[in-house]
Amino acid sequence: MKGIPIIAFWCLLALCIAVSCHRPPGSAEQRLIALDSLIAHSPDSALRALRAIDPAMLGDADQAYHALLTVQAMYKSYEPATSDSLIGRAWQFFSHHGAHDRRVRAMLYHGTVDEELGHLDEAIEWYKQADDLAAADDHGNRGFALLRLASLYHDQNSLDTMCIHHYKSALRHYTAIADTNYQLVCLTSMGAAYRTIDHDSAASYVERALTLSRNYPDRFFYHTNLVVQAGLDLMRGNWRAAADTSLRVLANGSTDYNTPERCRLQLARAYVGLGMPDSALMWLPDEPGGLPVEDQVTYYATRARAWGARGDSTAYYRDDNISCQLADSILNNSLQGRMRYIETQYEQAKVNQMLKESRSHLHTAMVVSALVMLLIVIAGLIVALKLTKRKASLEQAQSQVLELSNQIEHLEISEQEMTHAYENLQLEQQRNNLELKALQIEKEQLSAQLEDSRAQNLAERTRMAKEQKRNEARTAQLEAHIQRIKEREQVLAKAEEEHSLYMSTFSDFCSLATRQLDIMHTIASKAHTMSGNPSAFLESVRSIISADSDPVWVRLRVLADRKHPGVMGKLMSAHPQLTKREQLLIIYLLLDFKSEAIATAMGWSNSEMVSRHKYNLSRKMQLNTSLTKYLNSLRNRAE
Predict the structure, then answer these.
(1) What's the whole-model pTM score?
(2) CA nearest 337: which of 142, 107, 500?
């Protein structure tokens, strides 16, 4: 009776603890799940609600979830990250606990934080690991990881095709889940990326983006793709279409990021192409300081062309020099090579891990085989020892029988005693025979066991040999894969070197063409102003041409030597009798000019004149083959 109050007290205490530990329907985890859904539609509201929650009142799992959602809401609200403490707390928990989706998201937003803090190497690592860890049907997270990788490549070098590969992969994932917003992001980015690589592909993606964005509530994508379309018209020389598209975007009052300034730049470029430099200078933005660096290069290059069209050579060279310096700074600050190296190192680490696991399995199999062989040897020794003992006891019994027989022969005993002794001897012999049979049976059993052990050992060695062959085949495949990766890296390095040479030659040729075009514009303006005085006009033309210190063929010779080093030197050593005009024809052929372009540059009536002069030149040089094949052989020997 005295124990009843104590039992009641402990029951009441346990009930209170259970009630205090029970979570009501509106618990912290359910509230965080609701805010997780809210982030996709209203990240600003979700961020305010998350900051109203005190993380100190939450458990470890809820604190990590709260930190992850806060970083995600800050990113979607365009609030820059200043520290990686929040995402570090989330990753520290979700790397060992929690749902798979939250672990992938923690890796993704760890990459966004590192990207905003300027740690691009670590950001690439996080995005790559998130793409590998995410499930095959996790289109949202995989698309976001690939989109961020593509954006990094595009920001560092818009001419690299790696960004287009990632954009296409991200577009497939967002198309699978019908996410219109991110589909527009991918299509718009691919249109901008293809603009400097393939005009037809760029136009195709821009048209798809315009079709998808016409009925989309946010007009940002529609205006952005119109700006890209105007840029394509500029590259194709369709100045009027580019000007009309830019004016239409400006007339709609678009205030999206950098859209008005970029439209004004494109409109100025179109007016320069239309021969209206005053209108171009009027539409250029007042100050380029707020523009991205690429747009600043376009700004100064366009203004230089406008000053050149107006005849102001001082302003032309000043702005042209500024644009070249900005372009060089962009090229020097590019991190594209480092990003490629990081991706290659990541793939190489995966291959090395596979090789390490394969070698570990082979080592384990060898250790197991050695243990089995050791056990078989020990069992054989034990069997041999037992057989030796049995043989010794049998020999001892046989010696005892011989001794008894000798005693029977030498002792004189009675017939009864002899009979009794003989019966005892027979019984002893029977017992010995039985023991001998038992030993033979045991020997047969041990022999059978030994045969079974040998068969098992043979089967194990056969299996180990097959496993070793498979491991060797896998090792050979991995080594072949590594060799292919190295070969691809060599091909890529050679392609990048050829691309750099091509861009340098193209820039020099553009500068040469611009210089000649300026001279022609100056002569044309002189012809218009001095039409009544032909002699003065001819004298002015002679002074303009004589002021050009470097003749056309000399500068073209420099371009040919840059593209094919040593070819012109060998040619002039072998054929010093060539005239400057014949040298100019050979330089055009080395620079891969078409026949129509050569005829126009040389002042001939049609392209057939090019073939005729080539034939006459080969006869003058006493060649056994055509001039084109001769030049190709010189190129190959120079390379």
Answers:
(1) 0.42
(2) 500
